[in-house]
Amino acid sequence: MATTQTALITGGTSGIGRELANCFAQDKYNLILVARDEHELAQTAQQIQQQYGVQVTTIAKDLFRREAPFEVYQEVKASGTQVDVLVNDAGQGQYGTFDTTDVERELDIIQLNCGAYVVFTKLYLQEMLARNEGKILLVGSIAGQLPGPLQAVYHATKAFVNSFATSIQEENKDSNVTITNLLPGLTDTDFFEKADMTRAQNVAEKKGMMEPADVAKDGYKALMAGQNRVISGVMNKVQVTASNVIPDELVAAKIHSESKPVDGDESAK
Prior knowledge:
Helix content is 49%, strand content 13%. By secondary structure, it is an alpha/beta fold. It has one domain: Rossmann fold, CATH 3.40.50.720.
């Protein structure tokens, strides 16, 4: 497998991103991990280096900031490191009815979930096309295939990612650069803590929730095989397939019912 190749992973200190880092490190990829928390980055880097013996570079950046992805790119470029695989994973949501959620936080979420993906993908896709080799993994979500009451903005950002992925896959289908769209469903990560969504019924019950390591393995396998899209988990595949034939209004009502707060208060906290 790869011995000198490098993968850049956003959101690589926890959840699916952290497990993807393990997948790459196991195959001896060097890593560049991008996240906000310097302490978590240092801890993660030390663990991966000790376990797998690969080089791990960390870059602490707040990807809520519009300039941050450009700064990361320039920092990596200045180091002379070639990024062979780009993994856009970092993402957040906010739970609650749209009229009660914080618009400033939502604008940050749009920047993180969409803006950062666009910048990183454009800059590294251009480099990869110039070499005619490389791989990109865009972590979308089955949320992007479904309406999302109580998470309206998050679902909309993932619809953007999924659509964006399909479009640029078509544009670059004749190159040796592959772009893979990973669509997880409910996954047992700290996403729900950050989104204040632990009080949602389906999260509290962990109903159909997958382990991040299993999702990461599905995504990694699809990425290495050059596949366009992978929906992780049998029941998630069923849900997306069913949503394609059931009217959106009924899908929205079902998701609303499943994700209602256990305390009955749908307002954002």
